[in-house]
Design goal:
- This protein is α+β, with helices and mostly antiparallel strands.
- It has a domain of 145 residues.
- Helix content is 46%, strand content 12%.
- It is built from six helices and seven strands; from the N terminus they run ααββββββαααβα.
- α1 packs antiparallel against α2, α1 crosses α3 and α3 runs antiparallel to α4.
- It is elongated and about 100 Å long.
- The N and C termini lie far apart (137 Å).
Length: 223
């Protein structure tokens, strides 16, 4: 194929493949499947980001999807890097057929519609992990040779809690050690003072003899 034409027939094929993929993946009932298929899609040819709008805009009074389809036959595919999604595209992306890419991106945006509760389903937490997983799963089925080029996302190693515990224990022990040293110094100081008080006083040989004070002497014992 020398060129890719975004005809009405091609749009219908892309849309149908995306709906069928999600209906099978989630086991959607016929009513939910129909409601998801009725979400309006604005098709744009050109580079840029696609998006799901959970609220109406000037052109659409209800939630809708803007889907941008890049020009050319093939395009570089790039995904979010989420550890829980397990895989991501390598730096520079992966060469992917533009039709497969458009369908994968539409799967991504329709997953956001499901998270919003489209079709009467239970609203789920907004997450780019779930959308990325569904996008990757479609590429796995439609283009397994491209899926094989994905690289695993390696989680950053967690800090070792034992090291933090050791540091905390050392910090807690420091004040206790300082208090013990201070208490020991106080005990030694009082011990030295008590020893000085119990030692008999010896007058210095050069000290002059003091004269008796004129005061009443205490009554001697044993007289």
């Amino acid at each position: 194929m020398s060129s890719f034409r975004l005809t009405e027939r091609m749009r219908a094929r892309i849309h149908s493949d995306a709906i069928e993929h999600l209906a099978e993946r989630y086991g959607l009932a016929e009513a939910q499947r129909s409601a998801l298929a009725e979400v309006p899609v604005r098709w744009r040819r050109g580079k840029g980001s696609s998006c799901f709008y959970p609220r109406g805009t000037r052109r659409f009074a209800e939630p809708h999807i803007l889907l941008r389809v890049p020009p050319g036959v093939s395009v570089r595919w790039n995904t979010y890097r989420r550890a829980r999604a397990r895989f991501t595209t390598p730096p520079g992306g992966i060469e992917l057929d533009v039709r497969v890419l458009a369908t994968a991106v539409l799967v991504h945006e329709l997953t956001h519609a499901l998270q919003h509760g489209t079709g009467g389903g239970v609203r789920r937490r907004y997450s780019e992990v779930e959308t990325t997983e569904n996008e990757i799963d479609y590429v796995r089925r439609a283009a397994p040779e491209c899926f094989a080029q994905l690289v695993p996302v390696v989680r950053a190693p967690a800090r070792r809690p034992a090291a933090r515990t050791s540091i905390r224990r050392a910090a807690d022990a420091a004040p206790a050690t300082s208090a013990l040293h201070a208490l020991r110094a106080i005990v030694l100081r009082f011990a030295g003072t008590f020893a000085d008080l119990m030692r008999p006083a010896t007058p210095s040989p050069h000290a002059p003899r003091s004269s008796p004070r004129r005061s009443r002497s205490p009554r001697p014992t044993g007289s």
